[in-house]
Amino acid sequence: xxxxxxxxxxxxxxxxxxxxxxxxxxxxxxxxxxxxxxxxxxxxxxxxxxxxxxxxxxxxxxxxxxxxxxxxxxxxxxxxxxxxxxxxxxxxxxxxxxxxxxxxxxxxxxxxxxxxxxxxxxxxxxxxxxxxxxxxxxxxxxxxxxxxxxxxxxxxxxxxxxxxxxxxxxxxxxxxxxxxxxxxxxxxxxxxxxxxxxxxxxxxxxxxxxxxxxxxxxxxxxxxxxxxxxxxxxxxxxxxxxxxxxxxxxxxxxxxxxxxxxxxxxxxxxxxxxxxxxxxxxxxxxxxxxxxxxxxxxxxxxxxxxxxxxxxxxxxxxxxxxxxxxxxxxxxxxxxxxxxxxxxxxxxxxxxxxxxxxxxxxxxxxxxxxxxxxxxxxxxxxxxxxxxxxxxxxxxxxxxxxxxxxxxxxxxxxxxxxxxxxxxxxxxxxxxxxxxxxxxxxxxxxxxxxxxxxxxxxxxxxxxxxxxxxxxxxxxxxxxxxxxxxxxxxxxxxxxxxxxxxxxxxxxxxxxxxxxxxxxxxxxxxxxxxxxxxxxxxxxxxxxxxxxxxxxxxxxxxxxxxxxxxxxxxxxxxxxxxxxxxxxxxxxxxxxxxxxxxxxxxxxxxxxxxxxxxxxxxxxxxxxxxxxxxxxxxxxxxxxxxxxxxxxxxxxxxxxxxxxxxxxxxxxxxxxxxxxxxxxxxxxxxxxxxxxxxxxxxxxxxxxxxxxxxxxx
Length: 713
What we know:
Blueprint: H1 2-10, E1 14-16, E2 22-25, E3 29-31, H2 37-51, E4 56-58, E5 67-72, H3 80-87, E6 94-99, E7 102-107, H4 110-123, E8 128-129, E9 135-136, E10 142-145, E11 147-152, E12 158-162, H5 169-174, E13 179-181, E14 198-201, E15 216-217, E16 220-221, H6 226-241, E17 250-253, H7 273-284, E18 290-295, E19 313-317, H8 334-344, E20 350-355, H9 369-380, E21 385-391, H10 402-414, H11 420-431, H12 436-453, H13 470-486, H14 491-499, H15 501-511, H16 518-528, E22 536-538, E23 541-542, H17 543-549, E24 572-576, E25 581-582, E26 586-589, E27 597-602, E28 610-613, E29 621-632, E30 644-651, E31 655-660, E32 670-678, E33 686-690, E34 697-709
Parallel strand pairs: 3-4, 3-5, 5-7, 12-21, 13-14, 14-17, 17-18, 18-19, 19-20, 20-21
Antiparallel strand pairs: 1-11, 2-10, 6-7, 6-11, 8-9, 15-16, 22-23, 24-34, 25-28, 26-27, 27-34, 28-33, 29-32, 29-34, 30-31, 30-33
């Protein structure tokens, strides 16, 4: 009972003493209306688990027995006092009150009723909804409640944590999340019991809408061309006709996900965001629902546009380039934060698209908890900001601290004033039990170790970051091992804690510098990967790929000759084969490669099978190299030396090149210079290499891609 009361006080419910406590037990009746019936079924289900007895639900009030009454703002019989209170609150708000022998749970809409039910179960009856798979339901014969006057109102109108777990509508409702962006907005496989939430339909500016090269350049549409807007609106209206649109649904207008933009029609001195904003405004003024302008990559910086924007146009702002270990207000992210403030001057609603995971490796430690908490508190102080979308490992379970992140940030999106350390403690106490203090120490130490290294934490952060060096992993592992001793006799807590080793194990195995602990890490990681809902280990990286390479023998990478004596992570950067996007290549053991493993493709293929995304390339002037080995077919002759052995380039169109058979020695690695690039002036998507698709080359091996600073470029 003391623990329940502590939770109530922490979450700011107003509790005052009452002469006679209200007794909640198996005799308690649930009183519902037509609009609250589904929520009453949920409440009944949990009360029956708590009291191990059948609970009566009815539409009739009783004066003789304790009752919990569920009331919707638009119930015809709603009490005028309750109605007046609800009408003053934001959408999704609810109130809990004790009036004599009944607890009133009243909400402003369908979602609010469910939120109120789960809130009552969690903060008054002691239930804990921690993950989709794990929740705590206490057992009681009776619970005594004093007076209750609890008003719950969300700070942000739109709240979405984009992970596979919260894809489940029931669990999302327990977390008081209401956003359904992208595939969630059209998901038909959801229970009708739970309200759908605010849908944001996207992909309205994809290549499927406008299939004509005359309207595009540099991989983007020419948004300065009014014909593009007219075609897009027409195609969009066709698509909308098939959707069941509600008043609070919206439409996100996305440009292609690359830094390059079409320069047609953009006069000197005009920001590239201006034609895209005019394009979005044209579409918005023809629709009644919210239309979201995507302030992202090249469209992030607002234009000097004086024209009044349509009232239904909302800005969806994304700081994808930020150092995510630091708040946006920090010196490091100053330019990004300044852009956000400049968007507020347009006096339009703003939604934030922020990031809660490492898309370059879902499992590896990623210390951005405290920076993200600081950002949410900053956003809460900006009146224009009405919505938060936190993108996490949306296609898989198994992300680093995913369960904790989902729970903690769901709470913070509802009430950003909450203290993150207190939230972490509450979650850890329930999820890790007697190992709670060790997990909290683990989280804090990861953050402290990274802060000492002073290296940026990017959206796709490398396994080669200094804070992930072997001594750090060993130190973190010891903390978790001490916690493991505390839960040795608690099977469920032991499973939860063991999952945290996956980050250490993944980094240790992939970097090849695990030493004596590598075999233990391999066994733990294999066991971890047996979970049926772990599908990816980075964005787009199939888990089958990782399973296949765990047992490959890897060694600590050697330093390329061209990088000898240079400062790693400053003057040169290394991207090993595990950081490449391999559409159709296999990872194989290769004793002569830099780390003992290479990516391999058949020479008879022609796909761009070796790719390195450049999203988080360091800013500056760089020479780009790939370490490549060509295996020739035995019957090739001197005459074949002029045949092509390798294609390579930088997408979209900056650099393209070939290497001939005669430029390689059979089965020997050599550094192939892909080209030189200034990343401050050129927006490139990725580096690619491809086999020649001929009979002279048996196979192509790519060991690594690395870049070296070129101050003379």
